[in-house]
Structures are given as structure tokens and as C-alpha cells.
């Protein structure tokens, strides 16, 4: 019972902040005389979230698949490239400048090219989200594999462990906190990338809802879509946090 109370107390500041924001939002609408197309009331946004004429579940499903796909692609490719960079100095010198160049490209400008290369659908949105989110995973993975106590490496050599085994048994577990920390950043980046892809060209998804709501000046609908997007991002972020507590509980304790 006491543990449950402590958890509730941990979330209390965030809950109070959300309540204060909603209260200030309602006050601004009520006393500020703002028109609904400029700032809808929280009640009208709530009505829009449950509007039966909007195919919400289809849009949520499309955006959720794009975000999760982008996150998984960014995580797998980022960890793989980070391992390559840490494995060989030659690969590091060859690969890192290209990855930095790729990361500096304006992602919004690349989105139309994805449509030309792979066509319409969810896959271009997945690629866009992965492109935005993979770089932190590469860097953190490489750092985590490199920043390790040399006594641990020497211990592996003492037992005549081959390089691949030292890498697998010592370096990779050491990199868990670094990788998981990057995945938390990627969880939010994947959301941004997937929505950018839906903005450019999509016939489905929450980004598509926001774009179409502009033509009718239905700001409440756009706010409702934004809330659903945030909820998907929060669920993904919480899933990474849970994975972090399972794989690297010592790191979670240090962060707390």
C-alpha cells in the first residue's frame, strides 16, 4: 500500500501541471473571448476526440503502426551501425562522416523523395521516422561500447576470450544504459518523423486529420488529433522505460 502511495506521489506534480494547463486554457477561452477556430475549449476538443463521424481508430492504427515501425527500424539500424563503429576504427573513420552528413540533411525536404522512391502508404512514413530517430542510437551505442572499465576487458583477455565474445558478453551489456537512454529520445523522434511523413502525402493517419482540419478551420479536430499523437508517444516512451528497468535496473536507480 505504501509503495503504491509513493508511486502516486511521484506522478502528482505532473498531474497538477496538466490540470493547471487545462484550467488556464479554459480560462483563456472563457474570459479572453477567443474564437473557436483560434483556440477551442477543452470541452470541444474532448467532443472531437469522440466524434463518431471521424474514423479515429483507423487513423490511430495507421499512425501507431508508422510510429512503432519507425522506432523499431531506427533502434535496430542504430544499434547495428553503432556496433560497427565501435568494432573497428577503420569502419568508424569511414562511416561516421557519412552518418553525420545524413543526419544534417533537412528531413522535410527528403520526404517527397521517399514518395518517389517507394510510393504512397505507411512505409515512407516509417522511413522518415527512422531517419530522424536513428542517429542518437548510433552515437550512444558507440559510446556505451567504448566507455568501459579496462579491467573488465583485461579480465576477458586473461580467460582467452575472443574479441567477439568480449564484445558480446562485456561491451554490449555495458552499453545497455546508453542505448536505452537513446531509445527514449528516439521514441519521441519517431513520432515527429512519422507525422511529417503524413503531412507530406497521406490518405490516412492522425497527421492527415490535422492537414484536412485546416481546410475547414476545425481547430478542435486538430487538437484532438494532436492529443492522440501525444498519447501514442507517451505509451511508446513508457514501454522503453519499462524495458530499461528490466535490462538495466542499476541505471534506472542511478537516474532516480
From TrEMBL:
InterPro entries: MetI-like, MetI-like_sf. GO terms for biological process: transmembrane transport. Residues 60-244 form the ABC transmembrane type-1 domain. It comes from the Bacteria. It is found in: Cell membrane. It is a multi-pass membrane protein. Keywords: Cell membrane, Membrane, Transmembrane, Transmembrane helix, Transport. One of its GO terms (cellular component) is plasma membrane. Belongs to the binding-protein-dependent transport system permease family. This is ABC transporter permease. It comes from Falsigemmobacter intermedius.
Amino acid at each position: 500500500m505504501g509503495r503504491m502511495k509513493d508511486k502516486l506521489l511521484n506522478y502528482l506534480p505532473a498531474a497538477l501541471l496538466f490540470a493547471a494547463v487545462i484550467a488556464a486554457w479554459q480560462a483563456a477561452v472563457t474570459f479572453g473571448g477567443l474564437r473557436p477556430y483560434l483556440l477551442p475549449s477543452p470541452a470541444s476538443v474532448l467532443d472531437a476526440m469522440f466524434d463518431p463521424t471521424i474514423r479515429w481508430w483507423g487513423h490511430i492504427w495507421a499512425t501507431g503502426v508508422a510510429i512503432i515501425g519507425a522506432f523499431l527500424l531506427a533502434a535496430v539500424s542504430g544499434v547495428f551501425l553503432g556496433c560497427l563503429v565501435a568494432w573497428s576504427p577503420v569502419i568508424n573513420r569511414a562511416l561516421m562522416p557519412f552518418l553525420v552528413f545524413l543526419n544534417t540533411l533537412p528531413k522535410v525536404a527528403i520526404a517527397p523523395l521517399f514518395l518517389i522512391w517507394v510510393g504512397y502508404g505507411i512505409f515512407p512514413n516509417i522511413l522518415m521516422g527512422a531517419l530522424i530517430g536513428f542517429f542518437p542510437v548510433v552515437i550512444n551505442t558507440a559510446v556505451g561500447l567504448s566507455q568501459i572499465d579496462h579491467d573488465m576487458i583485461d579480465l576477458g583477455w586473461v580467460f582467452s576470450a575472443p574479441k567477439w565474445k568480449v564484445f558480446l558478453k562485456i561491451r554490449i551489456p555495458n552499453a545497455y544504459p546508453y542505448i536505452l537512454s537513446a531509445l527514449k529520445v528516439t521514441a519521441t523522434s519517431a513520432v515527429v518523423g512519422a507525422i511529417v511523413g503524413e503531412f507530406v502525402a497521406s490518405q490516412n493517419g492522425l497527421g492527415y486529420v490535422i492537414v484536412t482540419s485546416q481546410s475547414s478551420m476545425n481547430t478542435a479536430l486538430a487538437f484532438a488529433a494532436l492529443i492522440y499523437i501525444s498519447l501514442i508517444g507517451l505509451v511508446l516512451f513508457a514501454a522503453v522505460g519499462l524495458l530499461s528497468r528490466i535490462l538495466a535496473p542499476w541505471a534506472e536507480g542511478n537516474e532516480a
